[in-house]
Amino acid sequence: MPIEHNNTFRLSTICIAIITIMTASIHTKVNAREFFDPAFISSVNGGDTSNIPDLSVYQSVNAQAPGDYRVDVVFNGRYLETKNVKFITDTRSNKLDKKLNLIPCFTLDVLSQYGVRVKSFPELKESEQGCSNFDIIPDSKTIFDFAAQRLDISVPQAAISTVANDYIPPEKFDDGINAMFVNYQFNGSQDYKSDNEYYSLNLESGINIGPWRVRNLSMWNKSKGESDHFDSAYLYLQRSLRSISSNLIIGESSSLSGIFDSVPFSGVQLATDTSMLPESMRGYAPVIRGIAKTNARVVIKQNGYQVYQTYVAPGAFEITDMYPSGGSGDLYVTVEESDGSRQNFIVPFAVLPVMLREKQFEYEITSGKYRPYVGTIDDTPFTQATAKYGLTSSATIFGGVQASAKYQALSSGIGYNLASLGALSADVTQAWSKKRYDDKTSGQSWRLRYGKNIIETGTNFTIAGYRYSTKGFNTLSEVLNTYAHDGYYYSGRSLRNRTNFTLNQSLGRAHGSVSISALVEDYWDNKRTNKSLSLGYNGGWRGINYYLGYSYSRYTWGIYSSSRESRNDQRVALTISIPLSNWLPNTYASYQITESSPGSTDQYVSVGGIALEDNNLDWNIQQGYSNREYYSGDIRGAYNGSRGSVSAGYSYDNNSRRFDYGANGSLIAHADGITLGQNISNAAVLIKAPGLDNVRLSSDSTIVTDGRGYAIVPYITPYRSTDITLDSTSFGEEMELMQTTQRVVPTRGAIVRTNYAGNIGLRAFIHLKTPSGREVPFGAMVTLSGAAKSQASIVSDAGMVYMTGLQPTGVLTVSWGKKAGQQCTAIYTLSAGQKKNSGVSQAEALCR
C-alpha cells in the first residue's frame, strides 16, 4: 500500500507546515508583508519544485487574476445589473508593497449609462483597451468583492445626472431578432338542441425586422347555414424612435384620445410613447365589472371592433386582462345570456386627469383618410394634432386641432393639481361642421374631469367627469359618418350631457371594500337617454370570500323615434366562495344567487379549482336553478401549457345543449426554426438553451423549454428591465448552467432572444496521473479539449478534478505552468457502471 502511505506523509507535511506558519504569526512580529509562497506546494507534489504551478499572482493579499468576471453592479448603493465585467491590474498599485488590485474596465458609454456626467469631465479618456480613467473623478472609487462577485461603484452626487430611480438609458433598449409570429384564438360551439354551430378565429400576425414592426389583426367567423365572414381590423407598419421617445405608425390605426375622441384612420401617426418613460410616470388599464344571471358570453367592443370575448358563469364577474386596441375610447359591453336576453352597458375609458410633470411634453400628429368600421365612405382626408405641456409642477396646459374639408375643431384646456383636494381639468372645444343634407353648424363642448386618491380613508376617485355640448356641436366621426355610400351611418343624434363617476372605497383590511360607478348621458335630436349604475361590496372572513352587488342599466338604441327601443334592467347578486383546501388541495366551492327584474331568482352551486403538478389545469362544475322553471348545468376545463392553451366545456339549460371548445397560443418563426408558445403581448422573449429540454421558467411553471431547448416568454413589458431566470431545480442530471438569469429591456413589439450556454453532458471526478505514476500537480488547470467554451477546473491535492459537460469519452488539456513539461493531455472514458447515486461518475486517466 505505498500510495496510501505516501498520501498520509504528504498530508502530514501540510499540517506541520500550517501549524508552523500559525505559530510564527502569533509569536513573531515582523514588518514584512504577508504573502503565500507557492514553494510550500512542493511538499504536496512530492518535493518536485518543477511541478509547482505558476501562482505568483496570488502572492498579494486578496489578489486575483485579471480577466472577465460576472458580477452584480451596484451604483451608489442601488443595484443596476448583473453582467460580465473586464477587470485589469491596477498599475497605480504600490510597487514597493507589490499589491495587485483589480479595477473594472468601463468605457465612457457605460459610465454615461450609469448616470455619470461624462461631458463634465474633459479629462475622462479611454485607453487602447477601451478602459476609461475613471479615477480622475474626485472622491470616486470602486470596491470589488471577489467572494460575493459584487462590484460597488461610488460616485459623488455632483458628478451624476439627475434622473428617475427607475430610469433606463435608451442605449439599453433591445429591438430583438428578426422573426415572424402569429397569435391565434379559435373558438367553436355546437348546440345540439337548436342544431346550430358557430366558429370564430382571430389571427394577430406580425413581422419584426430590426426596429420595424408589421402588425395585422384578422377575424373570421361562421355560423351553420350562413356564409363565412372575414374582416381585417387593422394593418400597419410601426417602429419606435428612441431619440425623441416617440412611436411612428404607417397604415391603419386610430388616433389617440384624451383631448379629442379617438378616430380610425389610414395614414401616418407620430406620437409620444409614454411607455419609454420610467414606471413612476405612466398610465393605467381599465377593469370591466358586471353581473350575469346565466351562463353568458361577454363581448366587448371599442371603436366599432370586437376587442374581447369570454364566457362567464352566473353572478358577478370581473375582467382585468383586457387591453383595448387602437388607442382609447369607450368600451361597449354586451352580456349575452343563454336564455336569449341581453344586457348592454358602457364603461368609460380615458386617461384622467391629463397631468404632466413640470417641463414634460407630449404630442400627437395624425394625418390620413377617415377609416369607417363597416361599409364604405367618401374618401375624406383629415389631420389631427394635439399637445400637452407641464407648465409648472401644478399646472398642465393642453390643446389640439382637427381639420378636414367638412369639419374643423379647436380645443384648449388646463389641468391643475389641487394638492390635498386632488386634480381637476377643464377644456372647451369649438367645432364647425357640415353634415350631409344639413346646413353648416357650429357649437361648443365643455368638459370637467376630476381625480383623487385619499390614502387616509382608502378612497379612490378613478374617474369623475361632466361634459355639456351645445346643440350645434358634433364630433369628427359623427359628421363624416353621414357621408356613407349606403346611408348606413346617417344619424342625427348629438350628445348633450354626459356625467360619469367611479369610486373605490377601502373599509380596512378586515372589512373589505366598496365600489361605485355610474353613467348618465342624453342627446339633443332624439331624446335618447342611457343610464347605468353599479354598486359592489367585497369582503372576506377566515378564508371565505363574499361579494354583494347591485346593477341598474337603461340602454336605448334606434335612430328614429318609431324604431327606438329601451330596456330597464336591475340585478342584485350575492356570491360566497369557500375554500376546500383542507380536504381537496386548490379546490373551492361557491354559492351564487341573483335577483333580477321582473321577479326572477337564479341560484347556482359550483365546485372548481386548479390541478396538476404545475397548476396547469383549471376546472369547474356548476348546477343552477330558477323560479322561472329554468335549470342549467356546466362543466368545463382549461389546460394552460407552454405551447398554448386548450379549453372545452359542456353546458345545458331549458333552451340549449351546447358543447364549446377553444385553443389559443402563438407561433414564432425565427432563424433557428419554429417555436410554439402562449399568446404574445406587447413584447416577448425567445429562450434559446440548446440541450436544456423540459426546463421550467422560475417565475411561471407553465413555461417549459421544448425538446430543442426553446421556449417563449410571452408577456414582457416593453422598455422595462425584466429578469428571465431558468429554474435550476428542473435541470436534468447532465445539465449544468453557470448563468441561469439574463436581463432584457425590449422595445415595443420586440422579440428578444436570450442565449443560455451550459455544460450539457456527464459529470465526473477524474483522477489524473502522470506516466511516472504521480498525481498531476495540485493547482493545475484542466479544460475540455475541442469545447467552444470550457470552464476551467482546478486539480485538488490528490490529483482529482471535477468536470462537467463531458461526453462518454474525450480529451482533457492540463496545464500548471508555461515551461516545458508543465502541460499534458489525458484521454478519459466514462462508463455507466462508474456513476454514483449522485449522478457523478468516477474515472482515472493518464496525462501524457
UniProtKB/TrEMBL annotation:
<dbReference type="InterPro" id="IPR043142">
    <property type="entry name" value="PapC-like_C_sf"/>
</dbReference>
<dbReference type="InterPro" id="IPR018030">
    <property type="entry name" value="Fimbrial_membr_usher_CS"/>
</dbReference>
<dbReference type="Pfam" id="PF13954">
    <property type="entry name" value="PapC_N"/>
</dbReference>
<comment type="similarity">
    <text>Belongs to the fimbrial export usher family.</text>
</comment>
<dbReference type="InterPro" id="IPR025885">
    <property type="entry name" value="PapC_N"/>
</dbReference>
<dbReference type="Pfam" id="PF00577">
    <property type="entry name" value="Usher"/>
</dbReference>
<protein>
    <submittedName>
        <fullName>Fimbrial biogenesis outer membrane usher protein</fullName>
    </submittedName>
</protein>
<dbReference type="GO" id="GO:0009297">
    <property type="term" value="P:pilus assembly"/>
</dbReference>
<keyword id="KW-0732">Signal</keyword>
<dbReference type="GO" id="GO:0009279">
    <property type="term" value="C:cell outer membrane"/>
</dbReference>
<dbReference type="InterPro" id="IPR000015">
    <property type="entry name" value="Fimb_usher"/>
</dbReference>
<keyword id="KW-0472">Membrane</keyword>
<dbReference type="InterPro" id="IPR037224">
    <property type="entry name" value="PapC_N_sf"/>
</dbReference>
<keyword id="KW-0813">Transport</keyword>
<keyword id="KW-1134">Transmembrane beta strand</keyword>
<feature type="domain" description="PapC N-terminal">
    <location>
        <begin position="36"/>
        <end position="188"/>
    </location>
</feature>
<dbReference type="Pfam" id="PF13953">
    <property type="entry name" value="PapC_C"/>
</dbReference>
<feature type="domain" description="PapC-like C-terminal">
    <location>
        <begin position="766"/>
        <end position="831"/>
    </location>
</feature>
<keyword id="KW-0998">Cell outer membrane</keyword>
<keyword id="KW-1029">Fimbrium biogenesis</keyword>
<dbReference type="InterPro" id="IPR042186">
    <property type="entry name" value="FimD_plug_dom"/>
</dbReference>
<keyword id="KW-0812">Transmembrane</keyword>
<dbReference type="InterPro" id="IPR025949">
    <property type="entry name" value="PapC-like_C"/>
</dbReference>
<dbReference type="GO" id="GO:0015473">
    <property type="term" value="F:fimbrial usher porin activity"/>
</dbReference>
